[in-house]
């Protein structure tokens, strides 16, 4: 059965009659979760997003068949260690837009999870053993207070998209190139000084508003690159190796310190690349 109670201005959780495979109470004003919810042993999809929920109990561990859970846009300050018991959670875990300051170590036990969104919280770090989440394909941790990334991040060999914009990150881990399947890297509004060039599958690099001074000649190795956003850095020159990026569709170098725009930039535009300098 499917219970859909979305957008009904509910202040209390609806009465549960029987067992459900999906429950959604998206976009209400619910503050408290009844204990009866944790008895829904057949539940696979749970959407509690956009309410006023402050607390998630350890009863969460009873939802052993859960495949997706959305806790986003609430007022939650702590995720229980019980989250690590959800062995079948593989599709999505949304806990973005809350008041979370720290994630439990048990989160890293979710080895089947493919998508994790922890953006817009108050996190200062990622779990040190995040590399145990070996199925992750997309990680969103934007708009937090993260200053450094754990080395184990580089063990996430299935990672395709990494979103870390709006933090306080100064450098990437030394083995960052181990993320061999990475295609999209979003690092706008951090304190990064170097452009990563070892992830040759990347199609998008977003490094707007960082501390980059040089575009390395080795950037030509990123032959699949389509979008390169370096707006708002401290770059003075543009290496001609950019011309080797035959699939480049957009190059944004606005608000840098470029002294002279080289004539060959015209060739880049003739290749169909949208160039902003």
Description of the molecule:
With 277 residues, this protein is mostly beta strands. Helices cover 2% and strands 14% of the residues. The chain has one helix at residues 265-270; strands spanning 2-4, 22-24, 45-47, 68-70, 92-94, 115-117, 138-140, 161-163, 184-186, 204-206, 227-229, 250-252, 274-276. It has a 13-stranded parallel β-sheet. 36% of the residues are buried. The mean pLDDT is 97.
Shape: elongated
Q: Major beta sheet, specifics?
A: 13 strands, parallel
Cα distance spanning the termini: 56 Å
Measured on Cα atoms, how large is the radius of gyration?
A: 22 Å
Overall pLDDT confidence: 97
Could you outline the blueprint of secondary structure elements for this entry?
Elements: E1 2-4, E2 22-24, E3 45-47, E4 68-70, E5 92-94, E6 115-117, E7 138-140, E8 161-163, E9 184-186, E10 204-206, E11 227-229, E12 250-252, H1 265-270, E13 274-276
Parallel strand pairs: 1-2, 2-3, 3-4, 4-5, 5-6, 6-7, 7-8, 8-9, 9-10, 10-11, 11-12, 12-13
Keywords:
13-stranded parallel β-sheet; 13 strands
Task: Report a brief summary of the structure.
This protein has 277 residues and is mainly beta.
């Amino acid at each position: 059965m499917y219970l859909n109670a979305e957008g009904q201005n509910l202040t209390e959780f609806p009465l549960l009659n029987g067992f459900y495979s999906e429950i959604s109470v998206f976009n209400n004003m619910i503050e408290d979760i009844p204990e009866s919810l944790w008895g829904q042993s057949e539940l696979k999809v749970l959407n509690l997003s956009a309410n006023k929920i402050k607390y998630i109990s350890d009863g969460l561990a009873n939802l052993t068949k859960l495949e997706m859970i959305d806790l986003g846009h609430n007022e939650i300050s702590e995720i229980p260690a019980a989250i690590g018991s959800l062995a079948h959670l593989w599709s999505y875990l949304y806990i973005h837009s809350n008041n979370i300051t720290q994630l439990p170590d048990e989160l890293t036990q979710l080895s089947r999870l493919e998508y994790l969104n922890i953006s817009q919280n108050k996190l200062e770090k990622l779990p040190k053993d995040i590399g145990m989440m070996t199925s992750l394909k997309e990680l969103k941790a934007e708009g937090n207070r993260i200053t450094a990334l754990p080395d184990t991040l580089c063990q996430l060999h299935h990672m395709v998209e990494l979103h870390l914009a709006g933090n306080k990150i100064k450098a990437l881990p030394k083995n960052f190139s181990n993320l061999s399947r990475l295609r999209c890297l979003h690092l706008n509004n951090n304190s990064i000084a170097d452009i990563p060039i070892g992830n040759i599958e990347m199609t998008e690099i977003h490094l707007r508003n960082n501390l980059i001074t040089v575009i390395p000649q080795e950037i030509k190795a990123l032959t699949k690159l389509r979008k390169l956003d370096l707006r708002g850095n401290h770059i003075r020159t543009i290496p001609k190796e950019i011309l080797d990026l035959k699939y480049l569709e957009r190059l944004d170098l606005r608000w840098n310190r470029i002294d002279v725009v080289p004539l060959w930039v015209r060739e880049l535009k003739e290749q169909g690349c949208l160039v902003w300098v």
